Amino acid sequence: MQPLPAILAERIADRGPVRIGVIGAGKFGSMFLNQVPFSPHLSVAVIADLDPERARAACRTVGWDSELISQTRFTDDGMDLIADPAVEVVMEITGSPAAGCAHALAAARHGKHIIMVNVEADVLAGPVLAEAHRKAGTVYSMASGDQPALVCEIVDWARTCGLEVVCAGKGTRYQPEFHDVTPDDVWTYYGLTLEQATAAGMNSQMFNSFLDGTKSAIEMAAIANATGLDAPGDGLKFPAVDFDNLQNTLIPSDAGGMLDNAGTVEVIASEHRGEMTEMHNHLRWGVYAVFKAPNQYARDCFLQYGLKTDQSGYFAAMYRPYHLIGLELGVSATNAAIRGEATGTTTAWRGDVVAVAKKDLVPGDTLDGEGGYTAWGKLIPADASCRARALPIGLAHGVKLIRPVKHGAMITYDDVGTLPDNAALECRQKLENSAISST
Known about the structure:
3 domains; 6-stranded parallel beta sheet; alpha/beta; 14 strands; 4-stranded mixed beta sheet; Type Iii Antifreeze Protein Isoform Hplc 12; Rossmann fold; globular; 17% strand; single chain
């Protein structure tokens, strides 16, 4: 097989660059757009954003010249972008579950590959969306540069080497009180003033979802659903572990670690409990996988080649300390268009992210979704979510409560009124009905 750069050179000569349509020109989208002038194998045919002028400004901010901007079509309609024959690969970067589900289904209908940066939609109904693309013969892919795809890459590597994956995940900042943080308080934890954050164009609700545990839960659910790893039974534990001790801590309890069982996902904290300072050798920006040698010979090889192992010598870890978000996104687009391959994709419904009350809620309160004032997202096994009739965080937006819910309690479908009738609800109901019929 030729190396990818050689394949890309042939593609450019034969058919020109891979033609991309970008839906959502926020931070992630802007980071990808920054790479386009330096990537001759990629071109952006259309950019869709609710504010096309903001999208043009984003292009100028990342260094696009006026000629490149003039060669790109701008629209405020993602469906218009997907229908455009000039678009070969769709990048869905809206972060909206409803928009993401609608766009993914439309891309399949139009025979377009999709790079699902919108992990919120993927976790809400990924198996349904992935199946639509399998039937269409198109690629439904995670986004290279984002943690889920990078974790899948390490997991695939380990399994292909014949190693048992014991645990996989990422690092983040974490303290237990973060679950109740609201957009009003969030900038204090980032060391910023409201004025500084506003001047930088930072969205308080989005950044709060990074802090309150919701984004971590969503990303771990995506990894579980793509790799077949388990979601922990009662949510992520967020142990404070540095990268030198992954293999000592993230192993089963009967081997001296903290896991209830092997083959699970977990997020590690970059701070010790009660301390707002980063530990030495933290993995806040990175991803990891812990794996086990299959026999004594492989164990000895671990030691001979310098892997850090646990006391038994059987458990070791591989990690990547950083991820570059949208700067790496072109890898997914080229793999989809050139090789017909996904950089990680949903294969089953194993993990779900359910809404948990941030405070005592009363009838009439309106849920405001991921990173908001009312609920945070907790990772639990999908079958447990289905049995409990838990309300997924992806549907917990713009819906009123009809029953009181105590602080820290899981919110269920029985606690809320009528849900908005959109693609997200339709896909989610299809996923749940399928899960119920298969049990």
